[in-house]
């Protein structure tokens, strides 16, 4: 059985091309069933997100399986063979295993170490199982990938350091104020950045959200999506003393919050601290506000410095993650190679027994006057010769099964003993050795 991945992602193709290969949930189900109707494809799983579309397949014939997947994708996207070569990548065996493990670990994502992809991999696998288009190899492959993704995040903490402006802003407020569940947040501006920041604030359990915008209608629209309160911008001065967190991202060309105003607000708040984040460019909050006691002010440069530090920490974590993946690949490869080797061992034993039985019958037919005890002695002799003859080849092939070249040694044994192994028959005019040389090139 051969495994392969064919796909495209944000690094290999533009969004216009990715859109052509995007699948809805129903389309994935139909596409998966269509693919498994191909003679050479025993199981498959389709992973389709905004940044990637990938088909994972287990095939009895590598060339035919790849051709089937390629033909399907070209027809689906109405693309040419030239465009396929330009936008798509193909991974087989070792590279296919590594690719899925890296995807599940967030190492192949647009944002290094992001967490959403692990859930998307799990959903894709569960869908393949429910549609009954996976097989034993796909099941084990994806189950281990999900385990690897969890292990990488647990052992390296790669996803614990925020690298987006909005998420970093909320994480900083949490570090300053602690638990945000009892806090009130005041957001100035109702644009995209404000919306993203609000999403993270709500996720952290902020108790109350107040949104101020020069267009009250926009503020109301955003407030309706987060169960918040919309106010006109003129009410900011009257409501700010309620806020534990102030996030400002307006399109103003001048400061909208000045030091004198914040000093008045803090007098009314007493010693209760306020966390202020100015995401706007040009800035909304006068930098002198940072001089006010119990006010913690961060601007976009402060956030970027934190993000840069976190990105560097994620890159270091990614190095450790690659080491984890290497170990997991070795474990999966041993299991995968054993699937190829075990049928060869069985076929070899069967052939040895067939030859033994044939020659034993021939010998006993010529030795007509043997007693039952003598016949057993002759039979034991024949068994012993066959078992001893096959012992070393079987022992060696079991050991080779733990290496990336296990499939190749298995094929050599099949050719040497003229074995016919179901599901591993050599195609006329094609050698499996040729098919695998490229796959194990990095590990020869």
Automatic annotation (TrEMBL):
Describe the subunit structure: Homodimer.
Which ranges carry the Glutamyl-tRNA reductase N-terminal domain? Answer: 6-156
Additional information: During catalysis, the active site Cys acts as a nucleophile attacking the alpha-carbonyl group of tRNA-bound glutamate with the formation of a thioester intermediate between enzyme and glutamate, and the concomitant release of tRNA(Glu). The thioester intermediate is finally reduced by direct hydride transfer from NADPH, to form the product GSA.
Which family is this protein grouped under? Belongs to the glutamyl-tRNA reductase family.
Q: Does the keyword NADP apply?
A: yes
Task: Work out whether the entry's keyword set contains Oxidoreductase.
Answer: yes
Protein name according to UniProt = Glutamyl-tRNA reductase
Role noted for this protein: Catalyzes the NADPH-dependent reduction of glutamyl-tRNA(Glu) to glutamate 1-semialdehyde (GSA).
* E.C. number: 1.2.1.70
> Which GO molecular function entries does the Swiss-Prot or TrEMBL record give?
glutamyl-tRNA reductase activity; NADP binding
* InterPro entries referenced in this protein's UniProt entry, alphabetically: 4pyrrol_synth_GluRdtase, 4pyrrol_synth_GluRdtase_dimer, 4pyrrol_synth_GluRdtase_N, GluRdtase_CS, GluRdtase_dimer_dom_sf, GluRdtase_N_sf, NAD(P)-bd_dom_sf, Shikm_DH/Glu-tRNA_Rdtase
Q: Where does NADP(+) bind?
A: 189-194
């Amino acid at each position: 059985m051969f495994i392969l991945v064919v796909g495209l992602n944000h690094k290999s193709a533009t969004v216009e091309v990715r859109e052509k290969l995007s699948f809805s949930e129903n389309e994935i189900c139909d596409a998966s069933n269509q693919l498994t109707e191909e003679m050479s494809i025993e199981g498959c799983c389709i992973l389709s997100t905004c940044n990637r579309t990938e088909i994972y397949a287990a095939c009895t014939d590598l060339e035919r399986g790849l051709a089937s997947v390629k033909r399907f994708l070209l027809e689906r996207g109405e693309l040419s063979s030239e465009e396929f070569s330009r936008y798509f990548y193909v991974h087989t065996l070792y590279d296919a295993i590594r690719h899925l493990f890296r995807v599940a670990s967030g190492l192949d994502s647009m944002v290094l170490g992001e967490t959403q992809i692990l859930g998307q991999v799990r959903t894709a696998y569960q869908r393949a199982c429910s549609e009954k288009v996976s097989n034993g190899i796909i099941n084990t492959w994806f189950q281990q990938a999900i385990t690897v993704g969890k292990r990488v995040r647990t052992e390296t903490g790669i996803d614990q350091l925020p690298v987006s402006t909005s998420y970093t802003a909320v994480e900083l407020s949490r570090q300053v104020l602690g638990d945000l569940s009892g806090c009130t947040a005041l957001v100035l501006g109702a644009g995209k950045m404000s919306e993203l920041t609000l999403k993270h604030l709500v996720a952290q359990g902020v108790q109350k959200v107040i949104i101020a915008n020069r267009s009250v209608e926009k503020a109301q629209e955003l407030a309706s999506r987060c169960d918040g309160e919309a106010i006109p911008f003129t009410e900011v001065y009257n409501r700010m003393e309620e806020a534990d967190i102030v996030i400002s991202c307006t399109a103003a060309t001048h400061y909208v919050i000045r030091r004198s105003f914040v000093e008045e607000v803090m007098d009314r708040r007493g010693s209760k601290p306020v966390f202020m984040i100015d995401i706007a460019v040009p800035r909304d909050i006068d930098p002198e506000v940072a001089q006010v006691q119990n006010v913690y002010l961060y601007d976009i440069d402060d956030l970027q410095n934190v993000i840069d530090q976190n990105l560097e920490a994620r890159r270091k974590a990614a190095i450790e993650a690659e080491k984890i993946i290497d170990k997991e690949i070795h474990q999966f490869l041993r299991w995968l190679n054993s699937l190829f080797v075990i049928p060869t061992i069985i076929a070899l034993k069967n052939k040895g027994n067939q030859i033994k039985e044939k020659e034993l019958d021939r010998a006993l037919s010529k030795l007509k006057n043997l007693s039952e005890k003598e016949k057993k002695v002759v039979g034991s002799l024949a068994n012993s010769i066959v078992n001893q003859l096959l012992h070393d080849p079987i022992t060696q092939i079991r050991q080779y099964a733990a290496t990336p070249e296990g499939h190749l040694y298995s094929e050599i044994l099949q050719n040497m003993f003229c074995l016919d192994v179901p599901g591993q028959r050599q195609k006329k005019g094609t050698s499996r050795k040729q098919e695998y040389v490229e796959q194990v090139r990095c590990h020869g």
